[in-house]
Amino acid sequence: MSAPGAIDTLEFAHSAQELSASVPVAALQRLEDILYDSAGSLEYTIRGRQDERSRPLLELTIGGSLNLQCQRCLGKLEYRVQFENTLLVVPPGTPVDDDLDDPEAPDTIEASPELDAAALIEDEVLLSLPLAPRHPEGTCASRFDTQSDDAGPHSASDKEADGARAPSAFDKLAALKRPRNKH
Ligand SMILES: [Zn+2]
Questions:
Q1: For residue 132, how far is its CA from the centre of ligand 1 (angstroms)?
Q2: N or C: which end of the chain has fewer CB within 10 A?
Q3: Half-sphere exposure of 75 (CA within 13 A, CB side)
Q4: How far, in Å, from the CA of 4 to the mean position of ligand 1?
């Protein structure tokens, strides 16, 4: 073990280690732009194991809540984070294999002797977030709601209207989501 929270991915998987920790939302700086505030924390567990073909895996369980900013009214939107993901540890430099026929193929992560666990969790949370979080219809205090009835004959689409004023923070999020899209 080296730096706190750093894990040697291959060793971690092969010896079936487990790490559970909590990280304050305020420490997840890449989330900052899309948050309404940085209250709360996320709990996570990383488990190492090998699959039936003896390939190293990291199993992640992440939970907690975030206060996102509603993209319609810009108010606080409490968002529950709860998901699991399994990452296949691959040698550094392995290209993302777009030819894989298996739709169930796991996401991959490059092997590292010093993986920053909190950064990994941040990545995973970013990838899991909705691109344009909004309060459900009817509970949103949007000042735009009252204008939608006046929309011209060709607009009307909520989606188009939102796209037109999409904040840059979510463009950034969209860009972040691309590299590790599911196949
Ligand atoms: Zn709203």
A1: 11
A2: N
A3: 10
A4: 39
